[in-house]
Amino acid sequence: MTLIKPAKVCFEHIGGKLGNLLLEAFVEKGWIAKVNPDDKHYYITDIGQEEFTKFGIDLSLIKSEKI
User: Fold this and answer.
1) DSSP letters for 2-48
2) Its domain of life (predicted)?
3) Of the four, 19, 35, 50, 65, which is 20 to 30 A from 2 by CA?
């Protein structure tokens, strides 16, 4: 039997424990943030834009919104 660590996908996003760990890491590194702590949604910071681009992530695929 081979043991694997799951990377769950739900409605085109990473879910489960991996998704939660990624969220926490991105917040700690300052790659994503909230305008205020009560907000439900995060935004990609300037540092995050640089770092995600280094990973080869095409952020132009994410539509910009006013905050």
Assistant:
1) -------EETTEE-HHHHHHHHHHHHHHTSEE-SSTT-S--EE-HHH
2) Bacteria
3) 19
